[in-house]
Design a protein that fits this description.
The chain folds into two domains: 5-179, Chondroitinase Ac, Chain A, domain 3; 185-446, Up-down Bundle (Rhopdopsin 7-helix transmembrane proteins), CATH 1.20.1070.10. It is elongated. Mean pLDDT is 75; it is low at 1-19 and 283-291. The protein has eleven helices and 13 strands. The longest helix is centred in the last third of the chain and has 37 residues, at 438-474. Helices cover 51% and strands 19% of the residues. It has helices at residues 55-58, 185-211, 218-240, 247-281, 284-289, 292-317, 337-367, 372-398, 408-423, 425-435, 438-474, and strands spanning 13-17, 21-28, 41-46, 49-54, 68-74, 93-97, 102-106, 112-123, 132-140, 147-149, 153-158, 162-170, 172-179. The strands form two sheets. Strands 1, 2, 5, 6, 7, 9, 10 and 13 form an eight-stranded antiparallel sheet that branches. β3 and β4 (49-54) form a beta hairpin.
Amino acid sequence: MRGEKGAFSKQADTTVSPDIADIVRVMPAYETKKCNKTSKRMILEAGNNIMEIDCADVFKETTASQSAIALIVYQDLECVLNGTFFNDRNGLQEVKLNSRVVSSTIGSKNKTYLSQPMFLTLEHIQPPEARAKYFCISWEESEEGGSWSTKGCSYLGSNDSYTRCQCFHLSSFAVLMALTPQADPTLTMITHVGLSLSLLCLLLAALTFLLCRPIQNTSTSLHLQLSICLFLAHLLFLVGIDKTENKVLCSVIAGVLHYLYLASFTWMLLDGLHLFLTVKNLKVVNYTSAGRFKKKFMYSFGYGIPAVIVAVSAGIGHKNYGTSNHCWLKLDKGFIWSFMGPVAIIILINLVFYFTVLWILKSKLTSLNKDVSTIQNTRVMMFKAFAQLFILGCSWGLGYFMVEETGKTAGLIIAYLFTIINVLQGVVLFLVHCLLNHQVQMEYKKWFSRLQKGAEMESTELFHSTIHSRVEFSDPRI
């Protein structure tokens, strides 16, 4: 995709070649003295398209007598090498080029890598649409013939007429415009309202587990860590899931979300394991007061296992963090199973724990009358764990059915159920582990009574202070 040989002359020139290119702008190497003396950058303009490049960087391996840098704007080439040559769709719709194909080259090289970034400002062919998303792409040669790729280029910004790109190589470039799938406004509203409510409930739950001393034990420690992980995950999801402009930032957000949601499930697994061991020993007080489970095992497993999974996933496929539409894991190439796989395993293991607990309780109820109170407490714990498994496991379980083959109507129903259950996770955790806990209820009553007494005392002091001030003001001696 190079211009005609005559284009690489030794003098700066602007020519029109109707067979190959509309406009060719050439600057020979010996004219680098025309570069801006302050920034040492060269600016070439051709057909309302601008290239800004570092002078010393572009000619570092050439001599002035042998090379010249050219900016070439091709005529109607965007109709031939169109959006069908772009493979990284990731749910994008109506992909097409919205600029002329522009080549920047030096001498006879097809591709030159740069140590300093080169900036391109490319003119749009048509005004952007409301759902338009822009990508800076370059042509990559391959055995199959080549394709458009975002590798080596990053998108800096757009207005109605131009898009600005940053690239670290000389090649052929264009601006790709794609329409993102239109979000369901109802689902968006449910997500934002539900997550905001969940964040409030998770914060209250975490404060309860921290401040309510009568209920502090291994079980509440597990619930505290689960609440913290879910709070951070939901908060990051709410503020960062759509931050796709910066690819690096988007990848980081996707990786942190991957870790936080996996950590939530590992803490849920630890909760199930703790319940199983408690029922098996039928010594709730003695077992929950033991610190070994908490200190030596709990934190290293709860935060270490997700870290290992994310580290391995990032090492194998770090490019799969962040998509064109959301800062989450890419669905293609099976990478999503780095999350859904561990989730499925944890849900299955917890189900085994809970069914085993049911069997143990059934046998104990018929043989140990003296431990009825202990078993009753354990059954309450099991009910709460089941509710927790349902709200955490069921929602992500629905995710396995969110595929195109389910059909439009069924897929929409599953999407609504998935969203509603997911965003209410914090509400259910606060309801089950705090509001339905008798000890927590008593503590809440104490706190509210203290607040009420404090408010009454302040009101009484303010009343007496006001009366005293009035008496002093009415005293004729003043």
